[in-house]
Amino acid sequence: MTITRRDAPHGARPALTPDDIHVWTVGLGAPREALPGLVGGLDETERARLARLTSATDRRRFTVAHAALRGVLSRYVPTEPRELRFEIGRWGRPEIAGDHRHVRFSLTHCEDLALVAVAVGRGVGVDAERARPALTAVAARFFPAGDAAHVASVAGHRRALAGARLLTRKEACAKAVGERLLPFGLALPVFSPGDRTVVANPVGGRPAHWYVRDLPAPPGFAAAVARPGARPPRLWFFRWAGPEGSPDGGPDRIGAAQSGQQPAQ
Amino acid sequence: MSPAREETLEEFRRGVVKALENTLKKELPNATWETRLFDDLSLDSTAVLEVLMELEEQFGIVFDPDDLELEHLSTVRALAEFVRDARDAPVDG
Fold it and tell me: What local confidence, expressed as pLDDT, does residue A204 receive?
């Protein structure tokens, strides 16, 4: 299906077909005075989760990430951000409740970076990680032999980034099918030269494959997006600047990447 | 739970909190038995791997990732019990 701009209640709505994945980059910095208004747009479940967080930084990041998630999703469904309702779907991941569950999404945040991936008709997973030195040991301990050998073969400070890159691929694949990194995603062999690959399910079953693609990320971070199936999606990149953040209220498209092309940096 | 077993579990609680502090790189003076790893501390799945590795080193054990269920990571108590049970489990071979 194609979602048209014409139905958009909030400025422009980007067209999204089953061949597409839209990836929104969200900066989680926000002035303190903006937070109460953003909290007001969250639902009871989100506010309960927010109340449990013990760190002010974690609370700010959670608030901005979830407010942005609502804002992004309202571009794809005819619902006000604060009216969006979520439920846990049969794959164990949050879904949009009601008539719009065909719009699938995945949210990740790492420090002050958040990414929201949106697709229709099939699952999508996105993940971002900071390249921490500890990830080299994590790779040696937990990754399948081929993935661990790749990370170990990378010299110097780039080794941690290699570990982070494979870890984001695993987590993105797991999230795309409602699974978790541990133990499911860790067991997936995801290494390939280049920035994209088809990952085969090592234990059979469904899905047989994922298409996974590294994403542009700030220095020191790695990010990846994945969906079930071997067919490459078209990737479109947007930057979230708040509901009023761009002149027409629409997304600021910073680039698009189709199969065989490099994503916009 | 018997007092002796609870006392033993305290050793693992201290180990879990230490592993969390080292992974998150901050003191957790208010951590309790019921502190939730994901909801209260914003631990993510990658950080969980670092915590598990530190616990393996602290207690001289090797986890089988397939044995780990989500509920083992729900609270400090749940993870302490999982570590204790892993250490007490008979070693094959």
Answer: 83
- A203 and chain B: CB distance < 8 Å anywhere? no
The total number of structural domains in chain B stands at: 1
Flag whether pLDDT at A63 surpasses 80: yes
Confidence at A196, pLDDT banded by 50, 70, 90:
very high
Q: Does a structural domain hold residue B93?
A: no
Residue B71 counted as domain residue: yes
- pTM listed for this prediction: 0.86
Closest Cβ opposite residue A53 in set B42, B68, B70: B42
- Residue A198: strand pairing partners: A211
Any domain includes B67: yes
- For B54-81, how does the pLDDT look when each residue is reduced to its tens digit (9 = 90+)? 999 999 999 988 888 888 999 999 999 9
Which residue spans within A131-233 are E strands per DSSP?
A: 196-200, 209-214, 221-228
C-beta atoms of A181 and B46 within 8 A: yes
pLDDT score, position A2: 37
Q: Which of B37, B46, B50, B71 to mutate to test the interface with A (most CBs of A within 10 A)?
A: B46
**Burial of A125 (C-beta count, 10 Å sphere; 0-12/13-18/19+):** buried
Looking up tokens 């994503």 gives A263
Nearest CB to A182 within list B39, B45, B53: B45
**Closest by Cα among A80, A38, A44, A45 to A63:** A38
> For the residues A161-171, what does the mean pLDDT come to?
97
CATH number for the domain including B50?
1.10.1200.10
- Count of beta carbons in the 10 Å neighbourhood of residue B28: 16
